[in-house]
Amino acid sequence: MNSPLTEWAPAKVNLTLRVLGRRHDGYHELDSVVAFAGSGDKLALEPGDALTLSVTGPTAVAAGEGGENLVLKAARKLAERVENLRTGHFTLDKRLPVAAGLGGGSSDAAAALRLLARLNEIALDDGRLYSAAVATGADVPVCMEPRARVMRGIGDRLSRPLDLAPMPALLVNPGVAVATGAVFKKLHASTTIGTPALIAEDLTPSGLQVFIDREPNDLEAPAVAIQPIIAETIAAISGLAGCQIARMSGSGATCFGIFASGSLAASAAQVLRTARPDWWITATTLR
């Protein structure tokens, strides 16, 4: 098998995000309903003797090609667990904004693990893949099988897939990066771990929609305090025709709007691009 293998690395969107408290090890316990977009990066793997990476695409410079890139980290973590792991040269077509609350690097890493699993004939439910995903980063496990679900703990406890109807959406990044650590520091989470009001995976599709409408992103306010343009972005999305919800994803700065239809989301994207040509804007569907 010498021809390049390819995988899609879709954006991860936190539809809700509750911070339930800080653990004794310093990490935060989370409860988040996540979905995946039709927008993302593309990763290819050409089998070879050496593990290498090149990055192309409009956001390539921000992503970087060095050892800190999560694609290489994921490959190395799997190589620690699988003897004689075959690797090769990865080419990442980077299109998602970086440090943007879309889990782009984590999704890229998960795509790398899926590619290596295919190359080495490793089943996707092999425990070594999950172990490598956890070791790579908190958001990587949920990206391994990109379907809507609830992620808990530090991202290592996942629900079964949710019965979420496809949601027409707009993703908007105002061109600023927000450091996750700075947002959590601003939050000042308590040391007491709470309990979410409802278990989202037990809800019907209509009940799940109500749950998403009601549950906030606890990191939105501290992120706005660091980058006030996030509030401006949410307000701009809210004012577009057909917008039902406007919220920030993850620790920011990307925000999303849920729309009544795909055509309204597409029209909203055109309107907002005209008003803010310097922003990253894409109409998509969340599933």
UniProtKB/TrEMBL annotation:
Annotated InterPro entries: GHMP_kinase_C_dom, GHMP_kinase_C_sf, GHMP_kinase_N_dom, IspE, Ribosomal_Su5_D2-typ_SF, Ribsml_uS5_D2-typ_fold_subgr
Coiled coil location: none
Gene3D superfamilies, per database record: 3.30.230.10, GHMP kinase, C-terminal domain
Domain GHMP kinase C-terminal, chain residue ranges per copy: 216-273
Function: Catalyzes the phosphorylation of the position 2 hydroxy group of 4-diphosphocytidyl-2C-methyl-D-erythritol.
HAMAP family for this protein: IspE
PANTHER family, sorted: 4-DIPHOSPHOCYTIDYL-2-C-METHYL-D-ERYTHRITOL KINASE, CHLOROPLASTIC
One matching Pfam family: GHMP_kinases_N
Family: Belongs to the GHMP kinase family. IspE subfamily.
UniProt source species: Variibacter gotjawalensis
Pathway: Isoprenoid biosynthesis; isopentenyl diphosphate biosynthesis via DXP pathway; isopentenyl diphosphate from 1-deoxy-D-xylulose 5-phosphate: step 3/6
Protein name: 4-diphosphocytidyl-2-C-methyl-D-erythritol kinase
Gene Ontology BP term (one): terpenoid biosynthetic process
